[in-house]
Amino acid sequence: MLSAALVSLALVSGAFARAIKPRAVCADGTTVSNAACCAFIPVRDDLINDIFEGTCGENAHSTVRIAFHDAIGWSDFSDKGGGADGSMIAFGDIELAFEANAGIDEIVEDLQPFALAHGISFGDVIQFGSSVALSLCPGAPLVQTFVGRANATEPAVDGTVPDPFNPVDMILARMLDAGFQPEEVIALLASHTIAAQDEIEPAIERSPFDSTPALFDNQVFLEVLLQGTAFPGNGSHEGEVESPLPGEFRLQSDRDLARDPRTACTWQSFALDHDTMAQKFSAAMTKLSLLGQFQDQLVDCTEIIPQAPPSSRSQAFFPAGKTFDDLELTACDNAFPTTLLTQEGTTTSVARVPPQ
């Protein structure tokens, strides 16, 4: 009986080994689980070298941004576009005219010819490109990444991308229409840790949303909680609150979501826990990348996405000159600690993201 059991176990183990054996060896010697991923190895390398120039810079930031703007053109309840299908590029003449997509034309100008030269779809160059971009940002998580999307057949509908000046009710309703709960909305906003504004205030383009835009850390979640200075109640800034850090730009939507009772506790928890923030962001980005797609018709090529280097900072800190007393907090189950470290110096001034 024992001998028969051992034989049976050996047969099962052999079958399992055959099942997980890589099915292809690529030209560069990389072993992959699906041969289709081999074609994306040179795509990955050329993105890193030619589009992103090996840095977590402006083009990497912009590719993560377009991944959201392209995919969120989707509704679970009505016909609002094809989701993560590259329509932002395929129908750029329409979608780039939408106010919420201002400034995306520059990365489209880079990614469109790149996709055509490599023979991949616009949806794939955006979503695969976003995962590759994140791999250059220290502290960023690995995002499960699929390829094999068909090109878009229709544009998204204007208004599907939340505007940073929309009230929280409108933002959460739009995101729920696309299948995202409030906690997932905040998780997606972790991308703002490597983001900057260009079109809201063109005179101060490339102004980052936190003081460490080259790191995928949780600093943005802490700094948006700092008390800001109200703009005069007129003109385009009406109701907006300026960041207290010179050179840093605060989005009205970030400020409001950080203080809304439906999302504030998630926001505050991310300010205290980089690993959970990164994990939740990764899951939300994968979900985003599959909007409008059938996962079983795509190929998982996560194994060829590099792992980002660790961040030099594992915990958010108070910028120089700021303390716990400068925070605007919401009462949550877990009390916000008063023991976070403070950066040395008397004041923090935030530099713009270098052009690329």
TrEMBL record:
Signal peptide: 1-17
CC cofactor note: Binds 2 calcium ions per subunit. Binds 1 heme b (iron(II)-protoporphyrin IX) group per subunit.
UniProt GO molecular function: heme binding; metal ion binding; peroxidase activity
Alphabetical UniProt keywords: Calcium, Disulfide bond, Glycoprotein, Heme, Iron, Metal-binding, Oxidoreductase, Peroxidase, Signal
Site (Transition state stabilizer): R65
Domain Plant heme peroxidase family profile: 104-305
GO biological process, any: hydrogen peroxide catabolic process
Residues holding Ca(2+) 2: T193, D210, T212, D217
Residues noted as binding Ca(2+) 1 in the record, renumbered to the chain: D70, G83, D85, S87
Cofactor(s) this protein cannot do without: Ca(2+); heme b
Database matches in InterPro entries: Ccp1-like, Haem_peroxidase, Haem_peroxidase_sf, Ligninase, Ligninase_C, Peroxidases_AS, Peroxidases_heam-ligand_BS
Binding site for heme b: H192
CDD domains: ligninase
Pfam families membership: peroxidase, Peroxidase_ext
Disulfide bonds: C26-C38, C37-C301, C56-C137
Active-site residue list: H69 (proton acceptor)
Enzyme class: oxidoreductase
Its EC number(s): 1.11.1.-
Source domain of life: Eukaryota
Annotated family: Belongs to the peroxidase family. Ligninase subfamily.
Protein name: Peroxidase
Native organism: Exidia glandulosa HHB12029
